[in-house]
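Changelog note: in this version the structure field was regenerated for every chain. One regenerated record is shown below for reference.
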Amino acid sequence: MKRILGIDYGDARTGIAISDLLCSIVGSTTVIHSRKPEKTLEEICRLVKENEVGEIVMGLPRNMDGTEGTRAQLCREFAQMVEEATGLPVKLWDERRTTVEAHNILSEHNYHGKKRKNTVDAVAASLILEGYLNFRGR
């Protein structure tokens, strides 16, 4: 079996979550610290190869009314770059409220300041991947 990789794409930090081999739970997370899309893409390609990923899901930021703004367009463009670089299709997943939910989870576990800043994107990626895994399991 191949793992599924979840992406929470950001300007300075991109959260990554990778499923377990059974594609039933989030197995690991990391954050790519880079403001350069090319560097982020390079790191994603490395993780895809290293973890034997067969599927990619990426958060698509929508407004609360379901419309898409400039941030969604940037994500769509980056998803296209990921598809071309990895040869894997990227499924876009509605990520409304995942960052808010990630902040709430971290608050509950006393993550504050720099510790939170360096973790929130990985938690958001986990929530994106978890939502997708639950959807697949239905």
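Spot check on this record: The mean pLDDT is 90. The CA atoms of residues 34 and 40 lie 6 Å apart.
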